[in-house]
Structures
1.
Amino acid sequence: MDAARRRGGLTLWVTAGVVLVADRLTKRWAEHTLPHHPRDVIDGILTFRYTTNSGGAFSLGDRAPLVFAIAAIVVCAAIAVTSFRARPTAHAIALGLVLGGAAGNLIDRIARGSGLSGRVVDFIDLHVWPVFNVADASIVVGALLLVFLALREGAAARDASPAEHDG
């Protein structure tokens, strides 16, 4: 394996590991600290409030927990299988964010219910959006970063291609 593949894979797995550890630690803290004592961090804007949900990111689709669990397994497997492909660092970080977040929520589903139907711990309440967790935020940031990178690469490819002329 060449250095670029090792570097990309290592970046991806370290990012995923950091997200997974942060997610597990913050969920554990929320479980032990917040159930009966929500904390206003910024009055009316940010509250740490313990809740759980069976849906996907930001409590969406709470009637289909198995769908989200299977999607998380597929996403984790696809990223893991391709983790040591040569890729730019930003792509590795984005994929690591998605992998770490998907794994964090998948662990909740396995540990907090029968089969893959367990509930996910959420605790970050911005008052204008459903309550979420570090894993949810990582998945969304990673996905948005992937979209941004794809759009930027598309624009760069268009700029680099010779202009077509009529005539």
Note: The first strand starts at residue 39 and ends at 42.
2.
Amino acid sequence: MVRKLLIVLALVVAAAPALAQNSRAGKSELYLSPLFTNAQNYTFEGGSSVQTDTGVGFGFGWAYNFDAHWAAGVEFGWGDIDYRASVQPGPGNPNLSARFNSTIQTSSLRFNGTYHLTSGPLTPYLTANAGWTYVDTGVPSGLPQNVCWYYPWYGTYCSTVTPTHATTKFAYGLGLGVRADVGRSLVLRGGVSQQYVDFSNFSTTPWVQWRLDIGTRF
């Protein structure tokens, strides 16, 4: 599905009658990004394994074009990924392996740099990023707890919350794609990147992520 969306985007951009002729050099841009993460299988320490479904997320960011080729910026992103896990017993544990389903929730802060291969309004690009990713595994870390909050205008609200294992890790990635500057301000991008999260028990965990960026130059 994501590949088809990227192909459609490329065809629309190629047929657009009004690609911008003004340079992007010296201009900032803001953009919104639907994000899609490929389904994948992983094997971890002790033989435990995870099979993830296709993840869906959303991001937004800001970038500055130093000239027609080089740009840098910062972006924020969120995503959910459903998964099925097989957990193996550790040393001294006589129990059999266990299986469970849950959802990974992620949020990321990334600093990125981009190189546009041509100076024209339609150009391929290469990009690299680094930052931090917060990962909530959905695995319970304690018993359910009854907690209450005071909400503005609403008042007291109480519910049952189950604490889960979560962590923040260093993350980085490399990607490529196609960019089009349409009209005086519209920016369209379609790309794919290989993202890595540095987990101590699995070296680095890769995520293949597809994205569509829709933004404005100013």
Note: The mean pLDDT is 85.
3.
Amino acid sequence: MSLGIAGMGWVTPLGSGVEFVWNRLRKGEEAIAEKLDSQPGGRCYAVFRVPDAALATLPRHPRLRRVSAISRFATAAGLEALQSAGIKVEANNTERIALVFAISNGGVTYTRRFYSDIVKTGPQSASPLLFPETVFNAPASHLAALLGITGASYTLVGDGAVGLLAIRMAEDLMTNEALDYCLVVGAEEVDWLLCDAYRQWRLLRSQPPIEPFGQSARGMILSEGAGAVLLGRSGSIKLGKTHPGGDYRKRSKAADVLKLVLSDLSDGVGDFIIASANGTFIDKAECRAISQVVESGIIYTFKPALGESVGAGGIWQVIVAAQALRYGELPPLLHAPPQPLFRIARAGDRAITARGAIAISCGLSQQIAGLRLSTES
């Protein structure tokens, strides 16, 4: 079975639209961090937020009036993916499109508000308007209802690797000939509660920049947004191979699992490698695996420019991989030190002979996944 990317959608701290964001990345631009205040007198956190202008084209719909930010991001990305593929959801195809949603932290802003009210004034204050937004599958529900999709709908919850695992699940779903397309969406929103949690886990840094593949793990900056990939049975960018991935119980073992994934996906020569390095322990694991498996190729991570979007990150990797194959180049890798073990993306780098683009995701908890895109039939 041959699957291709029929359309894509992107909502990021650098704006929305696949080509718009891609061009900004190619110019070496990066998002500007905003300060996010916690409780009165508490800490301030640096985050990369989606600008209001990125959602300017979002349709006015009753279902979107009170939804959380994560649902708005997902809707905007999903609509762009369908529009770029020229697909309209109508009565004759509503059951032939499946939806797979990748999520990690979920609608944490409304969840915090919902339980905060209960803690402060008791269960009687629980808002029936906020409660539907506290479940993980709320964004998928909103998106499916707005689009009119009545086919299969699933929500996968995981860490930063969940986006690539969602693509693999979509591949399995597309073995059903009753489906023509599968829309895979990953989305995330930021909130001070999330920042506080990641800080306590010693994964967050107080100020940008994110410095990938550095000598020391100085931490990441959280970001928000969404990505959408519409898989179909045709498309110039092919889904070459997905990997089931694996889990690691200790951080020191992550590189071993990554090495197995890379070995299975790479032919060792001329590939683009879209890594998930974000300034944490992940960087060291990916550096070790890449240096041992990949003989040549260009390595890139968008995290210094767009931040760590967790649940959306894997889908963003797929979008970057597809764009790299389409244009034969990668944006420059920002804030990275000279890397003697492998070749990182620099301004003007091109790989005309690249036969594939590999995305590897190492999650912050235990999941690892990977896939390969190609331009070959």
Note: The radius of gyration is 20 Å.
4.
Amino acid sequence: MQFDLLDKPLVYIPVKWPGVKEGPNGEAVATEHSVEVQVEILDRVELVAWIGDSAVDTSDAVDEEAVARILAKELGSFKRVAQGWRGVKAGNKVAPFTDDNIGRIIRAPGFTDAFGAAYMAAWRGQIATRTGNSSGSAEHGQAAEPSDATRKDETNPTPPAS
């Protein structure tokens, strides 16, 4: 595939983060939240500016006015790259991509960290980790070098010696 200098990539990225939900008896049950956010992949200069402009100092978030300023900055930062979403519900309906709904999701515990990590993975072209990449093996460990016993596959085109 060729690289197009005129491209302004607009893609959906998966954002997943751990959380809790109410279980059948009212107890906390671990869950994984998952949404897809449509984002613009910024060029390097825009990315550096976005990261610099996005920095939020929460040390002064002791009153409602300070919290409102922080949330407004986070909302603006999110909307700088995000254009829409999929998989966000409000009750039984699809949640529209509005400032109020965006504010609610960016306040959700863990979302902003997960979004930042997902965005940077997409920016680097690393949308998902290949299944098995970090599982390792009992014999060779997680980061073991290939050995003669390593089976032939895409990462080891030379078959084991017979």
Note: The two ends are 39 Å apart (CA to CA).
